[in-house]
Write a structure and sequence with these properties.
Number of strands: 4
Structural class: mainly alpha
Number of helices: 9
Strand content: 5-15%
Strand order of the largest sheet: 1-2
Order of helices and strands: HHEEHHHEEHHHH
Number of domains: 1
Shape: globular
Largest sheet: 2 strands, antiparallel
Distance between the termini: 29 Å
Helix content: 40-55%
Radius of gyration: 18 Å
Length: 221
């Protein structure tokens, strides 16, 4: 991965400390909610309430992302997991709609694997599918929410989402992060749109960008 051009002072000196503080505050303020969701998860998910999966982080370093499990472990007679749409029960849908399944990622933020705002961390198997431009999204820590999540829709192509991610990487500012944070709050608590889960339910798997296919997205000026 090529070295990215130098970031501004916010990214270099202030973003990580602010992320750490926000992560700690979230854990302290919502500790009661963590306990409730852990108990509900054990009962309604029929076992471990947490979902842990390897994702790509900054500089393509692999880390373990943690979420509250939104799909149970029901299996068929052969022992195979049932389809996702069957295992996604009403409780899981509620977690996704309210983005409560993302709460444990506060620990990823405290640890330094993630940031509050940044490109969403995607599956490790996509690593070799990115082109040189798309790979730039990994120049920063992935985020709990991001520019693409508050500006894109489910119908937006992977190419457009990655273009938004790279644009964000090249334009990181405190004001911009604050704007994305408020847009995230508005979508989750006012419009009741799950920032990340809605995409994961409807977005097709990324299989690489065919030669000649480019993003048609352009940033608003």
């Amino acid at each position: 991965m090529k070295q990215h051009k130098p970031f501004g002072s916010f990214e270099r000196y202030f973003k990580r400390p602010l992320d750490f503080i926000c992560g700690m505050v979230a854990v302290v303020v919502f500790c009661w909610l963590y306990i409730i969701l852990i108990i509900f998860g054990f009962v309604l998910m029929r076992g471990n309430p947490f979902f842990v999966q390897e994702r790509l982080g900054k500089n393509e370093k692999i880390f373990k992302l943690i979420k509250f499990r939104s799909m149970d472990n029901r299996r068929d007679k052969a022992g195979n997991l049932l389809p996702d749409n069957i295992r996604l029960n009403k409780y899981g849908r509620l977690l996704r709609k309210t983005s409560l399944d993302e709460l444990p990622q506060a620990f990823n933020i405290i640890k330094g694997d993630m940031s509050v705002i940044g490109p969403r961390p995607l599956l490790v198997k996509y690593r070799d599918l990115y082109n040189e431009e798309q790979r730039k999204r990994h120049a920063v820590r992935p985020g709990l929410s991001g520019y693409a999540q508050v500006n894109g829709r489910n119908a937006v192509s992977w190419e457009d989402k990655f273009a938004m991610d790279v644009w964000y990487v090249n334009h990181i500012t405190f004001k911009g992060d604050l704007k994305i944070l408020f847009q995230t709050i508005r979508k989750v608590f006012i419009k009741q749109e799950g920032i990340n889960s809605a995409i994961s339910e409807t977005m097709e798997e990324f299989k690489g960008t065919p030669e000649g296919v480019v993003s048609t997205w352009r940033a608003e000026r």
